């Protein structure tokens, strides 16, 4: 039987710190959350691609944020 109602197990949606999209699946990096799509994007981004630098900057900010805590 499938129980479906308030108070049941619900998937927590977290906000992706890269795209700000709310998703329940992804990875948690330090105190931030990266959704599946962005995680894949990062993994598939060619290091020579300009977007890679954007992600890198974001990650750097994230690490800096984490180190402050
Ligand atoms: Zn995202």
TrEMBL record:
InterPro entries, per the entry: Sigma-G_inhibitor_Gin
The name this protein goes by in its record: Inhibitor of sigma-G Gin
């Amino acid at each position: 039987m499938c129980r479906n109602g308030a108070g049941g197990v619900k998937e927590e949606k977290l906000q992706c710190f890269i795209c700000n999209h709310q998703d329940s699946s992804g990875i948690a990096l330090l105190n931030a959350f990266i959704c599946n799509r962005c995680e894949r994007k990062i993994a598939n981004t060619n290091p020579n691609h300009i977007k890679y630098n954007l992600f890198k900057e974001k990650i750097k900010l994230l690490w800096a944020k984490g180190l402050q805590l």
